[in-house]
Amino acid sequence: MPRCYWRNPKELTLVNAGVDQSAARDGIYVVLANGLPLPARKKKPAKALETLNYYGPGSAADFAAAIALAEGNSLTRSLTALPPNELTPADYRQRIRTLAKAQGWALEEFDFKKLKKMGAGAFCAVAQGSAHEDAAIVHLRYEPKELKGGAKANERANIQAVALVGKGICFDTGGHNLKPAKYMQGMHEDMNGSAVVLGLLQTISALKLPVVVDAWLAIAHNHISPTAFMQDDIITALDGTTIEVVHTDAEGRLVLADTLTLASKKKPDLLIDFATLTGSMDTALGSLYSGVFASEEALALLAVSAGRASGERVCVFPMDEDYEAGLESKVADIKQCTMDGEADHILAARFLKRFTGSRPWLHVDLSASTSEGGLGAISSDITGFGVAWGLHVIQDWSR
């Protein structure tokens, strides 16, 4: 896939010299997605594109999807690029409140104390290492106009529901299993899965898609401190599953476990989670693809076709039951992971599957969240991978 190179022009003109509408839409998407520079604190920051002139057939409505998708991708990349001192869990939650108000989304926040009282021990084990109890699972809800207009019972029944879950670890030190400096650099981007969900939710809202979307964001830090969780702890998840902690740097699957449990309780027709979850996926695929796990064959095929159509390519990995033996624990219902790390991306998926309530489910391990020099249509190292793919999946699935 060719990469896009961008030089931050102030004004740009596109002339449609006889190409079809889909090519014109792609061109507009590329220009707009790259026209907003990512946050930087330089004396002379890059300037945003101010004007896009388009000459050719088509109206604004014809390009609405490209514009919405570019804005959703830009939101994801802009949030992911923010430094950790500007995007603590508390700061992130405030940004989400502002965004929810602007978009008209319903908002509910399950803060640390509430989650502790509910018994969300997997999430709280990770969050307890922070000095401030500012972690939370944030729930956003988008409803199409068909529901807001007082739809009849049969109309409501025909509107499908999607749950989107995103890992939002605002900084990941590795906890007591502290990362070396080489691997801790860039860990402010470990909230990228939640940013993908927000970008996707904004795109769906802009396009007024006829689906209900519940978004669940697991927002916390993974810090080292006297109160941080430790190896050999046994914790109890929200659904009552006991978990043996093997490695404190496998925190993502813990915060997602309780978040998936909350999401699955609403019995969505489709459940998708996004997370920068495992280093083994990076090893398996590099940064040009992301890995996907599917609860059923039809969803696996849908995931791959959406990757081809969107330009955000995915590879489906196996998740057979015999991998489960690697997670057997002598002291709890399940191990969090293994120490040797072999096939950790697969074991992580097997772990998460326990908390999906047997709903139709896709798990996206975002190895392509960053790609040096850009990826496909996106010129920045932070790619926003998942927004375009997710939109294609939901549109194709809902049809």
Structure overview:
This protein has 399 residues and is an alpha/beta fold. It has one domain (82-398): Zn peptidases (Aminopeptidase, 3-Layer(aba) Sandwich). The protein is built from 14 helices and 13 strands. The chain has helices at 21-34, 64-81, 89-103, 112-118, 121-127, 145-148, 153-157, 181-184, 192-207, 252-265, 279-285, 297-310, 344-353, 387-398; strands at 11-15, 51-55, 106-111, 136-142, 161-172, 212-222, 234-236, 242-244, 270-275, 290-294, 314-316, 334-335, 361-365. Helix 1 (21-34) links the parallel strand 1 (11-15) and strand 2. Helix 1 (21-34) packs parallel to helix 2 (64-81), helix 5 runs antiparallel to helix 10 and helix 9 (192-207) packs across helix 14 (387-398). It is globular. The mean pLDDT is 93.
TL;DR of this structure?
The protein is of the alpha/beta class and 399 residues long. It has 14 helices and 13 strands. It has an 8-stranded mixed sheet, sandwiched between helices. Strands 7-8-12 form a 3-stranded mixed sheet. It has a two-stranded parallel sheet with strand order 1-2.
